[in-house]
Write a structure and sequence with these properties.
The complex is a heterodimer of chains A (458) and B (195).
Chain A lengths: L4 H9 E3 L6 E4 L2 E5 L4 H9 L10 E4 L15 H17 L3 E2 L9 H7 L8 E4 L13 E4 L2 H10 L1 E4 L3 E8 L8 H12 L7 E6 L1 H4 L3 H9 L8 E3 L4 H7 L9 H11 L11 E6 L6 E3 L7 E3 L10 H10 L14 E4 L7 H11 L9 E4 L4 H10 L1 H8 L2 E2 L20 E4 L14 E4 L2 H10 L10
Helix pairs in contact in A: 2-5, 6-8, 12-14, 12-15
Chain B lengths: L5 E9 L6 H4 L19 H5 L15 E4 L11 H9 L3 E4 L4 H10 L2 E4 L2 H13 L4 E5 L4 E4 L2 E4 L4 H9 L3 H6 L2 H9 L10
Helix pairs in contact in B: 3-4
The chains are: A alpha/beta (458), B alpha/beta (195).
Bound molecules: iron/sulfur cluster.
């Protein structure tokens, strides 16, 4: 029987199958952060259990780290959470990139950049955007805290088989249109729940043409249309990205790995439960107008007429009137960051728009690199100078204003052009209003003071 | 976990689709390191206005939440079901749930039941019109019952068994340690280890 990549990976990780029970899957890499793990470690302690495979577990601090001032700048509760993670990791011998360490950063940024995220793996984390790692042809998904405890204890996870969806993105992306616009375009078409109960494979020429950074952006937002995981078949782009990274296989092991990785494509004739196609050449830069990622239109468009109660509530919350041109929406804040769009390529794309320009006087803009490694790479290229010269704040790595667990938050009523993934009510600060867009689009909004089609600035 | 089999009580309606976990429990309350104590912060921002449905006296003490499709979308935070449970809810009925939220509910012992739109609509209307109306969510017989109606629901048989038996899922997996060990002995050598 022809199989999809997801099915191949699933089959390769089944420890046990029993009728009437979920399959027991083996987990190759378990990523841990400070916010969704304390109760899991506490559960282990209370039941006298230990971590089965600390060597397959990696912890980092990202969600509530201050992006300036170090751990001392954190509020008491956040600091307690970070200290507790450090204690838990020490007790269980789990490697930890804590605040101040060279490799600290957003969990979904550091796994790939260390070469720990590889094709064919099952990767889990107590975080819904674990789908990001699927860009490498891994089966990667978010889990809850009870499941974190279960994986810490057993390195396995009982899972019911999920359905398969395919999204084919053909054609070539026009100038100024990015991976973010592909995925926002997909979500705009599917709505935010169509992926429920499914794994999705992205394929087609426009996906093949994306860099690993772009592929991660696409897979990252799979959860925003309800899919548990997104994946892309590994290819030469994937292998080139991995080659030489600290945890990538070397020498003969590299060759053996390559042989296996090349087999990770969906077989000809493998069947999917649903298929969607879009033509990349028709895509424009996208911007959300509402309070979920499916409420999105091309930047050349207008705020639509409400079609549901949800739309009406969103318009009210966002303080927008239907018919308003997107380009007429003034912006107070700009956030370039998050596991969706804070990798080196994202910073380069934003910097290329900003170079020689200045942040609009009414706008406060910040860049929060996805990891300290990204931050150093950007500084080596002088990107920090470009951002600072333009009036951007240049911060340390973390989730920051993607969810505002630290002091990087919007004030009530403030409107933000953000490269993150969720525009839910209050996500970036209670009463704050978020417009999701790509890094070049956010950069363009920073310099003009309103939502604008970045293609006018290129 | 304590066994869960049947919940009888009054309903509180949240007549909205796509309620995300950022609304159920906003991020500023994720800094706690306990599994309990989240009840006061449930729907914090929505309740700040003072007239949110959960704060209406006629819904005080409701143990069944009836709501719209795609409930619990967004963040994987298990704090969402913890907060619902702490607030007093023992069951949630909706036309559909986000995957991770649904899994988290089962681990938390919160009965999350899916019914067709039409039946959920009836329950939401009933809760609004007659807040004293009682319903029973029965995991044993797999039905939601009230005066004059009984709606059957499907549930994953394994999750049902775990809830009814109050089974410890880690303990269940640990029964298969030898199979896990056997699997580990066959993993590719080049798979990465963190150290
Ligand atoms: S950057 Fe945002 S979406 Fe990504 S892990 Fe952090 S909080 Fe979650």
């Amino acid at each position: 029987m022809p199989r999809t990549i997801a099915q191949k990976l699933w089959d390769a990780h089944v420890v046990r199958v029993a009728p009437g029970e979920p399959d027991l899957l083996y987990v190759d890499l378990h990523l841990v952060h400070e916010v969704t793990s304390p109760q899991a470690f506490e559960g282990l302690r209370l039941s006298g259990r230990h971590v089965r495979r600390p060597d397959l577990t990696l912890a980092t601090m990202d969600h509530n780290v201050p992006t300036k001032g170090g751990i001392k700048a954190a509020d008491d509760l956040s600091r307690r959470q970070m200290e507790l993670l450090a204690e838990n990791c020490k007790r269980e011998a789990i490697p930890l990139y804590q605040i101040g360490s060279r490799h600290q950063g957003i969990v979904h940024v550091i796994g790939p950049e260390l070469g720990l995220t590889q094709p064919g793996m099952v990767i889990v984390c107590g975080d819904s955007h674990t789908s990001t790692h699927g860009a490498f042809g891994a089966l990667a998904f978010g889990i809850g805290t009870s499941e974190v405890e279960l994986v810490l204890a057993t390195q396995c996870l009982p899972q019911k088989r999920l359905g398969d969806l395919a999204v084919t993105v053909s054609g070539e992306l026009p100038l100024g249109v990015t991976a973010k616009d592909i995925v926002l375009g997909v979500i705009g078409r599917t709505g935010i729940s169509q992926g429920q109960g499914h794994l999705v494979e992205y394929r087609g020429s426009a996906i093949r043409a994306l860099s690993m950074e772009g592929r991660m952006t696409v897979c990252n937002m799979s959860i925003e249309w309800g899919a548990k995981a997104g994946m892309i078949a590994p290819d030469d782009t994937t292998f080139a990205y991995l080659h030489g990274r600290p945890s990538a296989p070397k020498g003969a092991a590299w060759e053996a790995a390559l042989d296996y990785w090349r087999s990770l494509t969906s077989d000809e004739g493998a069947s999917f439960d649903g298929e969607t196609s879009i033509d990349a050449s028709q895509l424009e830069p996208h911007v959300t107008w509402g309070t979920n990622p499916g409420q999105v239109v091309p930047v050349t468009g207008r705020v639509p007429q409400p079609r549901s109660d949800t739309d009406e509530r969103a318009l009210k919350y966002m303080d927008l009137v239907p018919g308003t041109a997107l380009a007429d929406i003034a912006i107070d804040r700009v956030f370039i960051g998050s596991c969706t769009n804070a990798r080196i390529e994202d910073l380069r794309a934003a910097a290329s728009v900003i170079r020689g320009r200045h942040v609009h006087p009414k706008v406060r803009a910040m860049v929060v690199p996805g990891s300290m490694t990204v931050k150093r790479a950007a500084e080596d290229e002088g990107l920090d100078l470009v951002f600072k010269a333009a009036g951007f704040e240049w911060r340390n790595a973390g989730c920051s204003m993607c969810l505002g667990m630290n002091t990087d938050i919007l004030a009530p009523g403030e409107r933000c052009a953000s490269t993150s993934n969720r525009n839910f009510e209050g996500r970036q600060g209670s009463g704050g209003r978020t417009h999701l867009m790509s890094p070049p689009m956010a950069a363009a909004a920073a310099v003009t003071g309103h939502v604008v089609d970045v293609r006018e600035l290129l | 976990m304590d066994p869960v089999s049947r919940v009888t009580g009054r309903m509180a309606p949240i007549d909205r689709a796509d309620v995300d976990t950022d609304q159920i429990i906003p991020k500023q309350f994720l800094k706690r390191i306990e599994r309990t104590g989240y009840g006061p912060f449930l729907f914090f921002d929505w309740r700040a206005g003072g007239d949110f449905v959960l704060d209406k006296p006629e819904h005080a003490g409701a143990s069944v939440l009836v709501t719209g499709a795609n409930f619990g979308c967004g963040s994987s935070r298990e704090h969402a079901p913890w907060a619902l449970r702490d607030f007093g809810f023992k069951a949630i009925i909706a036309p559909s749930f986000a995957d991770i939220f649904l899994a988290n509910c089962f681990k938390t012992g919160l009965l999350a039941v899916t019914l067709p739109d039409r039946q959920v609509r009836h329950l939401i209307d009933l809760a609004a019109e007659d807040p004293a109306a009682q319903v029973t969510v029965d995991l044993e017989t797999q039905e939601v019952r009230g005066e004059g109606f009984a709606y059957g629901f499907a549930v994953d048989p394994f999750s049902r068994e775990c809830l009814l038996g109050g089974l410890d899922e880690i303990g269940l997996v640990e029964k298969h340690l030898s199979e896990i060990g056997a699997y580990e002995s066959h993993r590719q050598e080049w798979l990465p280890a963190v150290k």
